[in-house]
Amino acid sequence: MGYVFGPVPSRRLGRSLGVDLVPLKTCSYDCIYCQVGKTTDKTAVPARFNPVEEVLKELEERLRTTDPDVVTFSGSGEPTLHSEIHRVIGRVKELTGTRVAVLTNGSLLWRPEVRERLLAADLVMPTLCTVFEETFQRIHRPQEDLRLETIVDGLKRFREMFQGELSVEVLLLKGINDTEEEIQGLVEAFARIAPDRIQLNTVVRPPSSSEAVPLDRMRLEEIRGLMGEKAEIIADPRVGNGEADRTDLFRAVRGMAERRPIRVRDAADSLSIPMKEAGAIVQALVSEGVLRSREHEGETYFSAV
């Protein structure tokens, strides 16, 4: 499995070329809603994980042959755990005018060195799901040294120094962080943090725990109204305006499924191919024992074996 994947369809960013800086599944959290699976290496200490020179080589090759809407640091774990993320961001800026986004759980922004490493990004998208420690522990199952108060303070400090776009995601779960008390606490926290956007999300792909139950659209709309004009509900767009080399289609579909569960239409949209062709590729990979299927919320998802 390489370090660069996609472009894949993103509900927030369009066609996203992903950069994976940490091994599966290295993270500071073990979130009950995570679509990548349970955390196997839980840590809150940044270090050199995937080799930067190899990441840069692969990234440079991909940028010569594809034109994504954004280069996104995400993937198999928490990207800010890599102590040289700033080197890779800087190289992307040298190579292309494409925007750089960092999808992060925000748990390490209390560290001054981590805040500094992200300043060259165009868009940083941290997560904040609650302002209550008990709920935080229930949802995220964080590394034992992490505390919510410190993390929220780190978000505020980062906002004060970051010149790009700060878009905070709230992952809402039925019966856990969707109460009036929870929402009011988040409203007050966002008034202090002052993000550019508040993106309301819920469980879309199969989560790591059955405890993570999605909200329906009506409740999401109610919460959006309470959050104010900066809030938006993340849609599930069907994007796809690039080109894919026919010889790479099987590898591309498998690569997407190695990172997160996908639907047939995700593969079709990402690769700009007909649904019928994408379905045939997925079924061939299932027959070969490369992919397996799983039902979730009435849809079929495929993930790597």
Break the fold down into its secondary structure elements and pairings:
Layout: E1 4-10, E2 14-20, E3 26-27, E4 41-42, H1 52-65, E5 70-74, H2 85-95, E6 99-103, H3 112-117, E7 123-125, H4 133-140, H5 148-161, E8 165-172, H6 180-193, E9 197-202, H7 217-227, E10 231-233, H8 249-259, H9 264-271, H10 275-287, E11 291-296, E12 299-304
Parallel strand pairs: 2-5, 3-4, 5-6, 6-7, 7-8, 8-9, 9-10
Antiparallel strand pairs: 1-2, 11-12
The helix-and-strand class reads alpha/beta
Distance between the termini: 13 Å
Let me know the number of strands: 12
Helix content: 25-40%
- SS summary, helix count: 10
* Global mean pLDDT: 89
Q: Let me know the CATH homologous superfamily of the largest domain.
A: Aldolase class I
**What topology, given as strand order, has the largest sheet?**
1-2-5-6-7-8-9-10
Examine the secondary-structure arrangement and name the CATH architecture of the largest domain.
Answer: Alpha-Beta Barrel
Number of domains: 2
The SSE order reads: EEEEHEHEHEHHEHEHEHHHEE
Strand content: 15-25%
